[in-house]
Amino acid sequence: MSCALCATDTGLTPYPVTGGPDGASVSLCATCAEQITGTPEPEHWRCLAASMWSEDTPTQVMAARMLTRLSDHDWARELSEQLWLEDDTRKWVENIAEDAGGNETGHRDSNGVPLALGDTVVLIKDLTVKGANFTAKRGTAVRGIALVHDNPTQIEGRVEGQRIVILTEFVKKR
C-alpha cells in the first residue's frame, strides 16, 4: 500500500476526506498529511499529475482540492483545467466548509455566509491594493480563494494576475 497522493510507501495513516460520504478516507504519508493542513511545498505536489486520475473517488477529491489550493502556480492551474470529474465528485470537492475535525473554519463573508477553500467571491467595494499600484474594483469576481489558516478575517485570491490578501468583510460569496 502507498500514499494515495504521492505514492510513498512509508508511515501511512488514514486521513478523513470531509464533505462527502461518512467515513471516507485516504491513506496518506506524514508529509502529505502535514502539508494539507499546513503550508504546502509546491514541488512536492507535482505528484498530483498522476494521483488526480485515480479511480478512487476520495483520492480524486483530495487531489482536486490541493490543485485548487496551489492555483497560484501555472502547473497546478493547468492540471486543474485538465481534470474531469463526475458531477457528484465535483460537488464533494467544493463541499469543504468544514475542516478535517468537522469544525467550521470561521471564515465568513460580509453577510455571515461560511467561506470554503475554492469558493468564488465578489468584492463589495473598491479596494486599493498596497504594493501593486492598482485598485480592485467593486464587483470583481475572485475565483478559487484560499483561506488564511491562522486568521479567519482574511482570504487569498488572484485579482488582475496578482495574488492578494483580502479581508472577508469586503467580499460576498457568489
Assembly category = single chain
The DSSP helix count reads: 5
Percent range for β-strand residues: 15-25%
**Topology order in helix (H) and strand (E) letters:** EEHHHHHEEEEEEEE
Task: Give the integer mean of the pLDDT values.
Answer: 87
Helix coverage percent of residues?
A: 10-25%
Q: How many domains is the backbone divided into?
A: 2
Q: Evaluate the radius of gyration.
A: 16 Å
Task: Sum up the overall morphology in one term.
Answer: elongated
By secondary-structure content and strand pairing, the structural class works out as alpha+beta
β-strand number: 10
Q: Enumerate the strands of the largest sheet in spatial order, edge to edge or round the barrel.
A: 6-3-10
| Poorly predicted residue ranges | 97-103
Biggest sheet statistics: 3 strands, antiparallel
Gap between N and C termini, in Å?
Answer: 40 Å
